[in-house]
Every structure is written in structure tokens, then in C-alpha cells.
Amino acid sequence: MLIYHASKQIVEFPEIRKTKFAKDFSWGFYCTNNLEQAVRWANRGEGEPRVNFFEYEPASDLNVLRFEKMTDEWLDFIAACRSGKTHPYDVVEGPMADDTVWNYVNDFMSGAITRKQFWALAEFKHPTHQISFHTLSALACLKFVKHEVMHG
């Protein structure tokens, strides 16, 4: 499967970096199967927008968590990860909260809205795709193919 990583640089050797803020599925190396989405993300901020292409060949012994769509389990998992909690998964795949849904998740986490209110607000939002790699074993499943400067 071909997947894409948006960046300002060539990323031949993916890394897992712990940053100040935890992301949807915790700290990891994030990609998407949606090229259009990767181009949008690469064009955010300053610098030359690059999309790195990887061939992903899943290993059968990896601990993988997949969310097919936004569910209560997905919401609880994201809330826990964004709170700094880690998880035992090598790879996590599922919907990505766009900027609007991100705000709704933050409101849910802070108690500003209830779970029911979150789902009412998020009902007509169409999330995008993300797949995150959280261990060296998971990163070993990625093979760098190429990179392209892609203006969106």
C-alpha cells in the first residue's frame, strides 16, 4: 500500500519524535493514504512543501488498532492520547480530526461540551485518514519510495 507523509524535508528514514503536544494517536510517525490530504498538510506554514512516498507492507506480528469511522471508542482513544497517555499499539489507523473536529475534541476533553453534543457537532464533518507508526518494528514496515515538492 502506498502512503504519504507531509513535511518540509525529505524523510528517507522515518522517526518517532516526542513533541510538546501529543497528537490524535499519541507520539508517532504519521502518514495518510490520501495524497490530496498530504499535499494540503505539506503546504501549511513556511518552507518547501514536500510529500514523501512510502510503500507500507504490514507485518503480521504487529499490534494494530484500526478505527473504521468516528465512534465513541475512537473519541475516547483520542482524548486519552491527547492527554499524554500512551498505548501498546505498533500501528494505529483511522479517521483524523480536522481543525474543526479537533476543536470539538478539545471542548469535549475540557468538559465544555458533552459526548452527545460532540456527536451532534461532528455529525456532518467528513474526517480524513491517518495511520501512525509507534515502534521501530512498525517503522521497519515502511520503505521510502520517493519525495516530491508539491504545491497545493
Salient structural properties:
alpha+beta; 3-stranded antiparallel beta sheet
Explained architecture:
This protein is α+β, with helices and mostly antiparallel strands and 152 residues long. The protein has one domain. It is built from five helices and seven strands, in the order ββαββαβααβαβ. The strands form two sheets. The chain has a four-stranded mixed sheet with strand order 2-6-5-4. The chain has a three-stranded antiparallel sheet with strand order 1-3-7. α2 links the parallel β4 and β5. The model has no long low-confidence stretch (mean pLDDT 93).
So what's the oligomer here? single chain
Secondary-structure content class:
alpha+beta
Overall mean pLDDT stands at 93
Q: Could you give the count of β-strands?
A: 7
Share of residues in strands: 25-35%
Chart the SSEs and their pairings.
Layout: E1 2-7, E2 29-31, H1 35-42, E3 50-56, E4 64-66, H2 72-82, E5 91-96, H3 99-110, H4 115-122, E6 128-133, H5 136-139, E7 142-149
Parallel strand pairs: 4-5
Antiparallel strand pairs: 1-3, 2-6, 3-7, 5-6
Question: TL;DR?
Answer:
This protein is an alpha+beta fold and 152 residues long. It contains five helices and seven strands; from the N terminus they run E-E-H-E-E-H-E-H-H-E-H-E.
